[in-house]
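Hi Q.,

Before the meeting this afternoon, I wanted you to have the flavin-adenine dinucleotide prediction in hand. No need to reply - just skim if you have a minute. The sequence and ligand are here:
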Amino acid sequence: MCGALDKWNIFNFEWSGFYLDKNGLSQTLHFKLKQFPFLYLLNLYYPHVHKAPRFFLFKFLYALTFFMREENKSEGLKNLYENRLINNELIELFFKPFTENCLNTEFEKASNNMLSFLLKECSKNLPSSLDIYLPKSNYHVCVILPIINYLENLGVTFHFNSPVERIYPDRSLKLRKNVTGQYDDIVIATPGYSAFSIWKKSNLPINDEISVWEKQVYRDILNLWVFIPLSKVNASRTKNSFLWHPVKFEDDGTTYIIVSKELPNHILLAIVRSACVAERAKKEKEEIMAFGRKLLRTKFYIQLDRCDFKLIRSKKATVACTHDQHKTNSIWSGIKTPMDRILKCSDEGAMGFPSTIEGAVFSGNKVAEKLLQQRN
Ligand SMILES: Cc1cc2nc3c(=O)[nH]c(=O)nc-3n(C[C@H](O)[C@H](O)[C@H](O)COP(=O)(O)OP(=O)(O)OC[C@H]3O[C@@H](n4cnc5c(N)ncnc54)[C@H](O)[C@@H]3O)c2cc1C
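Predicted structure with the ligand bound:
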């Protein structure tokens, strides 16, 4: 609608797992969707699979079907797979990294219902449901600007760098030192914890919906960004312009996701660890740095300290899709508040969706529908 997608590249989903141990990097599972005349097939290369289980493909498809089945709702993932003869190596190779990165929740604690939902979503409209969209240059130019330009042309006014501190009962807002005029409707489009802080400062009534914002349990995401100068790299360069690889690190048992992109003079590498928790912050930091050092030595024959790098911890990155939160319905807040004409819209507002961009868009659509209903 606003032309933003013209500024994106589309990549095919391709899973290429690795194992990093004392012998270096070895490929484990590799698969991608391949196009044949009139049909797409999952091309699965498993001869390289580290400790390949016998009848690998059969076991993989069995596990896939098993996790997609809805009647498994009432149990947590750990109980479920341990009691149902699902091959443990398969969990480590695919289901654990897939779940932890898509749901930002530890596999053992994750809700099976959410995993099942996600796998079903991926299987709809294949193969385009598995396309990966990335901005051609950066998010500001390819995402934010086209949307802002489109909305400004429709008369929308933006106040940037003006955090909302309070909402008054007459629906005016306190932004830093200013108080705005009265608005017809207010939509709070922030994560639940941030919405709760505004709500509490505003002394507005608190009911069950608002309490969910306070109780929601979040997970952090750790991101180690590295710029590797092309002039100093001896190893084979990334041929594709975008790569996404899960790499299991023997030293700490964690699967890190490596995203890399070749720029004119550098390789930009993002090393991502999902499902992080504040209590383990120090250990997680040491572990990701150790992984980064070993990966750079092994794959690029370069010391991390010879590159520009930055470690960023996105605190409370998303709500955790845990089995416990699912049982008590506290993953989602919905879009309502106890105040007339004040709505909530965010990734954790979309009932049934994991905390993702898709959840945020879905929740936005619900709010837009509600506003239109109120107008008519
Ligand atoms: C490192 C990382 C990687 C991720 N990767 C993916 C991915 O690959 N795929 C995916 O689908 N999702 C991913 N996510 C999750 C995705 O980014 C979120 O689900 C999504 O952005 C949520 O959208 P939202 O509009 O609900 O909230 P946000 O994007 O958090 O937007 C809320 C906005 O409100 C602003 N705000 C907060 N408080 C105030 C205030 N008091 N006044 C005014 N403004 C305020 C914030 O600055 C922010 O701009 C990732 C998240 C992180 C952190």
